[in-house]
């Protein structure tokens, strides 16, 4: 489990394309400290497994399902990525409960800079819109954010200078894809209410 508090801005150093998968090598001095084979690291919000680790780099395999559901397929050598290690039991939950299981992708639609923050508008797939509410939580490229406005096919978030400086959202422009993970609690509530309704 993750919290959506990005630990560092890493970089893709190699990409190996396979028949139905992809292998990435990524640099991240913070997240690789003490890393071992089989550990989990979130890359732009996608929970990946460390296959190999050497120095400040690690490799991870990405299967076709993940490539199809997320924006990892557009990564290339030199791409910057948000990196986060799983939260430790007993640690502070600084963001919200993030599984690293991407629900779909959105697209940066618009950026409105202000003196002390920036409003970013992001497209929202129709099948995810019901889980996104004003002042609720959403994960964008692995970043735990609060929804400012929620529309039928978009939402907005307000980014502070720290988020702009230390994550990929400071770099992405209109037209760029982002990974989205909605609040898992909303999905469980929907499922439970649906089940109850069906048994009455």
Automatic annotation (TrEMBL):
InterPro entries: ATP_synth_asu-like_sf, Lumazine-bd, Lumazine-bd_dom, Riboflavin_synthase-like_b-brl
Class of this enzyme: transferase
Biological or metabolic pathway of the protein: Cofactor biosynthesis; riboflavin biosynthesis; riboflavin from 2-hydroxy-3-oxobutyl phosphate and 5-amino-6-(D-ribitylamino)uracil: step 2/2
Gene3D superfamilies: 2.40.30.20
Ranges of the Lumazine-binding repeats in the UniProt entry: 1-96, 97-193
Residue span, Lumazine-binding domain: 1-96, 97-193
UniProt keyword annotations, A-Z: Repeat, Riboflavin biosynthesis, Transferase
E.C. number(s) listed in UniProt: 2.5.1.9
Keyword Transferase set for record: yes
MF GO annotations: riboflavin synthase activity
Keyword field contains Nucleotide-binding: no
Superkingdom of the organism of origin: Bacteria
Reactions the enzyme catalyzes: 2 6,7-dimethyl-8-(1-D-ribityl)lumazine + H(+) = 5-amino-6-(D-ribitylamino)uracil + riboflavin
Primary role: Catalyzes the dismutation of two molecules of 6,7-dimethyl-8-ribityllumazine, resulting in the formation of riboflavin and 5-amino-6-(D-ribitylamino)uracil.
Protein name: Riboflavin synthase
Organism of this sequence: Streptomyces viridiviolaceus
């Amino acid at each position: 489990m993750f919290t959506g508090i990005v630990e560092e801005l890493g970089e893709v150093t190699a990409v190996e394309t396979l028949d139905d998968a992809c292998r990435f090598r990524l640099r991240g001095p913070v997240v690789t400290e003490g890393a071992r084979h089989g550990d989990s690291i979130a890359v732009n919000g996608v929970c990946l497994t460390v296959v190999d680790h050497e120095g400040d780099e690690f490799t991870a395999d990405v299967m076709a399902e993940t490539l199809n559901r997320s924006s990892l397929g557009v990564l290339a050598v030199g791409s910057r990525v948000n990196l986060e290690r799983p939260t430790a039991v007993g640690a502070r939950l600084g963001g919200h409960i993030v599984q690293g299981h991407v629900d779909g992708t959105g697209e940066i639609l618009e950026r409105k800079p202000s003196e002390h923050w920036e409003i970013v508008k992001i497209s929202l797939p129709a099948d995810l819109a019901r889980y996104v509410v004003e002042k609720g939580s959403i994960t964008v490229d692995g970043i735990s954010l609060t929804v400012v406005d929620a529309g039928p096919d978009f939402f907005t978030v307000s980014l502070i200078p720290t988020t702009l400086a230390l994550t990929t959202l400071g770099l992405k422009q209109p037209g760029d894809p982002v990974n989205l993970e909605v609040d898992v609690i909303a999905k469980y509530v929907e499922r439970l209410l649906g089940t109850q309704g069906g048994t009455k």
